[in-house]
Predict the 3D structure of the following.
Amino acid sequence: MADKATSLDAIDDTELSGTAQPRSEPLTSVPSQKRNAFSELMSPKSKRHNVSSSEPPNPPTSLSSKYDRRDGLGAYIADPASFPPTQVIYHNPDFVVIHDLFPKATIHLLLLPRSPAKVRLHPFEAFDDPPFLSSVQLEAQKLRSLAAKELQRQLGKHSTQEQAREKALEPSPTQQQTQDEEPPPGRDWTSEIMVGIHAHPSMNHLHVHIISRDRHSPCLKHRKHYNSFSTPFFIPLDDFPLPEDDKRRHPGREGYLQADFVCWRCGRGFGNRFKELKGHLEEEFEAWKKI
């Protein structure tokens, strides 16, 4: 895979240069074993790095030099404990979960399998192994639920469906809910989380995206950013294993990244007008979070 970004890459050279930069100071507070999943992510006091910056968040070290550019995710897999909880959410012997350094939505995480036999395979090849695919799908399902809870924590106060449920659960001095009466179900936040891979991964190490569907982020800056999550270039993990004749195996031939813009929510077409699309996405985000 070429070192510089190509026409099939969903990210650019700036993002390739900004991957896997461990902090140079000691991180004694980060345990070497699996952390309490999302304990930092779901804490209101948790602080994340400034994702709007185009600069790498930390200075390079010997570890990041070894895992440079397209190999950047390898640093997280090799030594997740060297990263702070603002970058590594949790890790265990089989997986590492990190924040995407350049998130393309409100929630954007990466699930990194650690199997030495699979770690550098293209997902089309790695996920042809049924037992391995099942293990990744199971972990992704857990992470999707956790991501949904974090999305709820961030946006629940804006949601009409969520407010209706909270109101129904509040004790009322004038009206007592019967045991058989169920409160409104609230918003299905899990349905707002997408789980999948890119047909042409830009990074050499196997990774799965867990991302909220809103496409609302200052890091979503151009056509390839948007279309990589809004066309069949993004392949849901549940679609694997792919049939041999599945056209998504040929993203360059199908031209997914060069396609005209279509709003992910309302289906409105924007042709090549990215600036206009971005303004529309802002409006859609405000409406979407109020559902």
In short: DSSP finds nine helices and eight strands in the chain. Residues 130-155 form the longest helix (26 residues). The first strand starts at residue 88 and ends at 91.
